[in-house]
What does this fold into?
Amino acid sequence: MIEFQVDRHSGVATYLQLVNQVKQALRLGVLEPGDRLPTARAVVEATAINPNTVLKAYRELEREGLVEPRPGQGTFVTRSLSRPEAAADSPLRADLVAWVTRAHAAGLGREDVLALVEAALAEAAARPRGPAGSARAGTERPSREDTT
It folds into this structure.
């Protein structure tokens, strides 16, 4: 079962925080099709937010086809977003945990790590892709003529 955390100082709308937490749980395999989300009442009691906020988040998840309400039973997950590469026992995840551990040991905090990850994601997205759809091999940088 997912336990929602609300950060009132994040600048992100509360309902979107709930939506994003459900999506993350779906990507990581914490929630799977058939699982029941907490009732709006349970979320309100745990987080002290308005019931309408919870219902708005659940409606958004329903609109995206991720959950379905069942009258008298609750709201249930209808599809997964998980991928084997993101599973708890995947080599990619183990590499990432090791990297984050090294980053923390080097004195980087959460915000520093997140900034590095976002920068790396942007850099990887900007790289041309090869014929197989993967990022181009090698680490060469484009020449000045390529960037003008």
